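Hello Y.,

Per our agreement to keep a running log of every chain we model this quarter, I'm adding this entry. I've kept the format consistent with earlier entries: sequence first, then predicted structure.
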Amino acid sequence: MDTLGLKWNRLAGVTTDGCPNLIGLLKRMQNKVTEIDTDQKLVFLHCIIHQHVLCKSVLKINHVIDVVTKIVNFIRARALNHRQFIALLEEHETEHRDIGYHTAIRWLSLGKVLKRVWDLKAEIREFCEKKDKDFPELSDEDWMADFAFAVDVTALMNELNTKLQGKGLFVHEMHSLVKAFMTKMQFLSSQLESNTLTHMQTLKEVTPSADHLRRYSSMLGALHGEFSRRFENLRKIEDEMHLISSPFTCSVDNAPSDVQLKLIDLQSDAVLAEHFKSGSLLDFYSSLKEENFPNMRRHAQKMLVLFGSTYICQRSRQCNGRASP
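Predicted structure for the entry above:
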């Protein structure tokens, strides 16, 4: 920090990929900041996108992923097999004309591959029969039900992943996306308990048994619990995030004491309320006069500069790597 000409008292938070080796460094950073201002507390966040990907471990769908990977490798690994499979798809005039590999480091690719193999399962069965290659799971009702569930749940997680990678998202916006996903998991879990498959269209195709539905309901409940555990650090700053994202509707009682009286002034000002509705958060807080709302501006600066993810850093490294000779 010092060598870069950056001031420690301007540091609001640190976002990491959760590496345990960083714990000591983060503690030293907090100590350094405390030496300058005893009241300043840094916000330490674990990358939201990274956390989201780690949550998939509780789904226990490796028995599906492993078989699908073997199927794709059988088709794609040998050039002759691949050409013949593409020819078969062209003959059947299918919507999809190929299947792709699943890249282990990319969660998004998994959901896409599962969905593509599911959509082409009839053609894959036919191709494997012609090649005298047996994948017994494709005829196993229990495995196919698990496969259908995996397609639906990875699609839901992919949707969240894509939203979290959106440009210009503030931490509170990413937190809202995660909260919405957690609520969906609770809702879908209760629906499966009552044999309602309205929002699980792939699973609906296989008519799963009551035992299957109970197990899938439990898996979604476990996924909700894992999200709740991993995103506990965000809940600790939820009131402060809400204060900044919704200053005209947030509770004064839940606001930090140093802004409560000024928050009442803010919520009573119709002109400021209209300005808030019509502009961006950055424009709104920039327009607040320092002499009138110093602490509100300070809290806004702290929340709006936090990085919810290390994704932007990873993208920058990738871009730099491509640009390098």
